[in-house]
Design a protein that fits this description.
Layout (H helix, E strand, L loop, with lengths): L12 H14 L12 H8 L3 H13 L3 E4 L3 E4 L3 H9 L2 H9 L38 H14 L14 H15 L14 H12 L5 E6 L3 H9 L3 E8 L2 E2 L8 E5 L14 H12 L1
Parallel strand pairs: 3-4, 3-6
Antiparallel strand pairs: 1-2, 4-5
Helix pairs in contact: 1-3, 2-3, 8-9
């Protein structure tokens, strides 16, 4: 196992090794049964004497966190997990944790957000945006994947273009051109790992801190969270049977987030008249 430790050049090196190994056991990086490097090997990688590493190993062994096996090496003790739990419940440990500076926390826009809630299996799934797996062309997909894997088995492993494979972007441009009437080219297409990454990229490019962004109410909360994380002042705007109520848009709106083809979550399609009103508002 390659174990990374970073030692200072002042103070007791053995104590540094001891503390960092103990921390790795406590936070789960080293788990019961994991083998530690041989003392000579670790001492060489840290550029310290073997006695320094021996001292740290012996302390951890005496405390029950490590165990030596003749002819095999040094391992994390099977009882290490229970010792960590006992130490974590010690009142002195709890008091120290309470006085410790706060760890990194999410930005305010993301606190309490449930990105992917776990749901129990259901006989009938009525969630929005979940396709019927029976309609997916599994056989065609399997053949296409097998063909690509076979044709690329000798290809050099490297990162693809960050904004997506060119042939895929060209196919998307053609598809939205035919199905949605969108005039675009492959160079204007960016393939993301999901809608949330797309929202984040859009917010980073188009939204400045303090800018007003109008969103549909009701609407899609994860998109609103991405906009708030970029510093936007998100303003909810009501929707009716034709879509977002353009007359209710705040003045000086920098960006309007809408779902015109299938409003989330109501399912309305924005009318042609309302689309034209929205375009006129944005052009003004």
């Amino acid at each position: 196992m390659e174990l990374h430790l970073s030692l200072g050049r002042h103070g007791r090196l053995a104590s540094d090794v001891y503390r960092q190994l103990l921390a790795a056991i406590r936070d789960g990086r080293l788990r019961p049964g994991d083998q530690l490097p041989a003392t000579r090997q670790l001492a060489k990688s840290l550029e310290v004497s073997r006695n320094t590493v021996l001292d740290a190993y012996q302390r951890l062994t005496a405390e029950g966190f490590l165990v030596g096996r003749a002819g095999a090496g040094t391992f994390v003790s099977p009882e290490a997990a229970s010792r960590v739990r006992a130490a974590s419940s010690d009142p002195r440990t709890i008091a120290k944790r309470r006085d410790r500076p706060a760890a990194l926390t999410p930005a305010a826009a993301w606190r309490g957000a449930v990105v992917s809630p776990s749901l129990a299996p259901a006989a009938f799934d009525f969630r929005i945006g979940i396709p019927d797996p029976a309609l997916f062309p599994w056989d065609e997909w399997r053949r296409a994947v097998a063909h690509q894997l076979h044709s690329r088995r000798r290809a050099r492993a490297s990162y693809p273009e960050a904004h997506g494979v060119p042939r895929l972007r060209a196919a998307i441009a053609r598809s939205v051109g035919l199905s949605r009437g969108v005039r675009t080219t492959a160079d204007q297409i960016v393939v993301t790992s999901g809608a949330q990454q797309a929202f984040d990229l859009i917010a980073r490019v188009l939204v400045e801190p303090g800018a007003t962004v109008a969103v549909e109410e009701p609407g899609y909360p994860p998109a609103h969270a991405a906009l708030r994380a970029a510093g936007a002042r998100v303003e909810p705007v009501p929707v009716d049977g034709e879509g977002i109520v353009v007359s209710a848009l705040p003045p000086h709106t920098r960006l309007v987030y809408v779902t015109p083809s299938h409003q989330f979550p109501l399912g309305h399609v924005m009318s042609l008249r309302r689309r034209q009103e929205l375009l006129s508002f944005c052009a003004a």
